[in-house]
Amino acid sequence: MHSFESHIRSVPDFPKAGIVFKDISPLMQERFHEVVEAMCEGINWNEIDYVVGIESRGFILGAAMATLKGKGFIPVRKKGKLPPPVIGESYSLEYGTDTLEMIINQKSARVVLVDDVLATGGTLKAVMNLCQKNNYDVKAMALLINLTFLNKFKEEGLPVHTVINY
């Protein structure tokens, strides 16, 4: 088992009061290669065409995973950051709504979704919907941290690989 937790800093009351932010910066600085390898475990890479990285830390982790496994990379960004044509998906946050976008895709492909933290699952569900609308078959999800006390996220038959669970 990995001993990554000692490299994660807990920051109380960030970004707002009552939230304990899990800062992965020290972990990325000290053990980045090991983290990327750990995130690649448990995924059947023979059935993956592309890695879908979710803004913004999902870009860092996802791009490194794609490089390690010789796969292409697809960014999912906040509204207005990608050039058209794009497809969007809005989702609820505890303090409002947000919209994620990806460039419109014509051909079907198999993907793994990558993000740093799974909190309530809203972002991941929005990206799954985007992929479904865009001819991408989500085969797996890879997350560095799962805040299990905030979600009961389980997709029927879909592997959710997490490295650290709180």
Q: In terms of topology, how is this protein built?
A:
Layout: E1 9-12, E2 20-23, H1 25-40, E3 50-54, H2 57-69, E4 72-78, E5 86-93, E6 96-103, E7 109-118, H3 122-133, E8 136-146, E9 160-165
Can you give keywords for this protein?
alpha/beta, single chain, Rossmann fold, 7-stranded mixed beta sheet, two-stranded antiparallel sheet, globular
Compose a concise summary of this entry.
This protein is of the alpha/beta class and 166 residues long.
Folded structure, characterized:
- With about 170 residues, the chain is of the alpha/beta class.
- The chain has a single domain, classed as Rossmann fold.
- Helix content is about 25%, strand content about 40%.
- The protein is built from 3 helices and 9 strands.
- Helix 1 (about 25-40) crosses helix 2.
- The model has no long low-confidence stretch (mean pLDDT about 90).
